[in-house]
Amino acid sequence: MNFHIKSGSLTSAEPGEFIMKLLKQSVTLLVILSLVLATTPGGFAYQADESTAAPVQPAQQTPEQLQQLVAPIALYPDALVAQLLAASTYPTEIVEADRWMQQNPDLKGQQLGDEVNKQPWDPSVKALTQFPSVLANLDKNLSWTSSLGDAYVNQQQAVMDAVQVMRQRAQQAGNLNSTPQQKVTTQGPTIVVEPANPDVVYVPAYDPWLVYGAPLPVWPGWYPVPGIFIGGPAIAFGVGFGIGYFGGFGWGWHHWGFDWHNRAVIYNHNTYISHSRTFINRNNFGHHAGDLHGGAAPRGFAGAQHGFSAQHIQPGTHSGAFSGFDHGGIARSNSSRGQSSFGGGFHGGGGFHGGGGFHGGGGRR
């Protein structure tokens, strides 16, 4: 007997087909939903009770991985390395600050300092506005920046050790010496790098994958920013940055340094404490888990890929690097205020202003 659906009524031959079709559609929807939930970053997918769910504990980076990670900054003056490590815990503010600098290219000296001082950024991010190309490098290489911030939060002493290892390698390769621009001294097992003139800072330009002797693997997706990158196994210096304009601000150059004995960044004569909630301190999970060093005040962070804020990220859901970034890969260059400035007009910085040629550095060809 063969029946059909007519005038909105269901005949007896096709109910089975109708039910099977409905079941297939339901299964398809469930599969799609499962895939969405499985691939969505932690803040959306994670719904379990924090008191019962076990936190994700990614493996610590090896010394070799950390050495590759710090290679682009290890040869900078100590105070600049301190500012960089602290600022790397605020990647969203780095993007905002770099874009702000590009939008205000005419601000210089005291006027720049006055306007930067009004911004809501962390002191470390404000400090990097003194060195525009260094700030641009952090913005344009956000995958690396986020990895650096995560490592600083969770392996602070190992990161400091990696900086010293790379300085030793550069010194052995003949590329880290005292010059008219910088003073390099050895204090026990520690190599200290300082400006030769305390009022003028030169940012060394080098290829971080060639300057240390045996070539290092290039960080995947690394973008060589003009002003702090030169090809070949050498170091060069451009025009120095006068820092006297910023001396009256609490975030200025002379407020930063290192306690190499205790492997700590120093800010205002005390160990620097970051209050960023961008990265999870996995060493103290369950005890102020979202804070770097037990600080209290969270700072505004918007997830780079999906635009969700830090307070919506459940502790223990992912590796600690903020979700818009692919560790070891190219940054998915979105931020809370739009795309990162990949390909954006690069503003003058890094000590290579008009007419400023390179000055001889250690091992220069």
Note the beta-strand portion: 5-15%
Helical content class: 25-40%
Tally of helical segments: 10
- Main β-sheet, spatial strand arrangement: 4-5-12
Average pLDDT: 74
What order do the helices and strands follow? HHHHHHHHHHEEEEEEEEEEEE
Question: How many strands, what sense, and barrel or not for the largest sheet?
Answer: 3 strands, antiparallel
Question: SS-based structural class?
Answer: alpha+beta
**Spatial separation of the terminal alpha carbons:** 93 Å
The coarse overall form would be: globular
Low-confidence stretches: 1-13, 31-57, 286-365
Structure notes:
It is built from 10 helices and 12 strands. With 365 residues, the protein is α+β, with helices and mostly antiparallel strands. Strand 10 and strand 11 form a beta hairpin. It is globular. It starts with 14 loop residues before the first helix and ends in a 5-residue tail after the last strand. The N terminus and C terminus are likely disordered.
Topology:
Layout: H1 15-39, H2 42-45, H3 63-70, H4 78-87, H5 91-103, H6 109-117, H7 123-128, H8 132-140, H9 142-154, H10 156-172, E1 182-187, E2 190-195, E3 200-201, E4 204-206, E5 235-237, E6 241-242, E7 256-259, E8 264-267, E9 270-271, E10 334-335, E11 338-339, E12 359-360
